[in-house]
Amino acid sequence: MPEASVVWFASKVDWWLRVILFLPPLASLTALGASLASRDRGEIAVAGLICATVAALYGLLVIPIRYGVGSDELIIWFGVFRQRVSLAAIEEVTPTRNLLSAPALSLDRLAIRTGSGLLSTTMISPLDREEFLTLIAAKTGLRRSGGRLVGGSHA
């Protein structure tokens, strides 16, 4: 799918999660600064390794988190990973505040259900929820029911 045909949505980020996400890089950089000041090669190596590990984890899993809606699929991009969900497979989209791990930086989430079973739901947190729901509804044929998108047989 050509990148130009995808509409991208940033992830909403809760204020408290911003604080939590800011702490590991700050702590590792502070440790690196202190070790550089001490000129102890062992401390510098350990602090440098910690900084590299934090940067790698953020780069692999966290930055960026965004959601793309293309002509026939939803692309969930988190770090270096991509999850593709066929728009035709989406059965329901419902608001949730589920605490389970998800490619979302907010607890103000949407659960995207593509079937029954434990692995058939993905949670995301688009910053512009209304625009996202409107676009998904237009692409899938699901209808709005409050803050949800449902198929024809759901209330």
Task: Please give a quick description of this structure.
With 155 residues, the chain is an alpha+beta fold. It is 37% helix and 26% strand.
Detailed description of the structure:
The strands form three sheets. A four-stranded antiparallel β-sheet has the order 1-2-3-4. Strands 5-6-7 form a three-stranded antiparallel β-sheet, with no helix packed on it. The protein contains three helices and nine strands. α1 runs antiparallel to α2. The model has no long low-confidence stretch (mean pLDDT 91). 19% of the residues are buried. The protein has one domain: Roll (PH-domain like), CATH 2.30.29.30. The protein is α+β, with helices and mostly antiparallel strands and 155 residues long. Helix content is 37%, strand content 26%. It is elongated. The chain starts with 6 loop residues before the first strand and ends in a 5-residue tail after the last strand.
SSE inventory with pairings:
Blueprint lengths: L6 E4 L4 H24 L2 H22 L2 E5 L3 E6 L2 E6 L5 E5 L12 E5 L7 E4 L4 H12 L2 E3 L2 E3 L5
Antiparallel strand pairs: 1-2, 2-3, 3-4, 5-6, 6-7, 8-9
Helix pairs in contact: 1-2
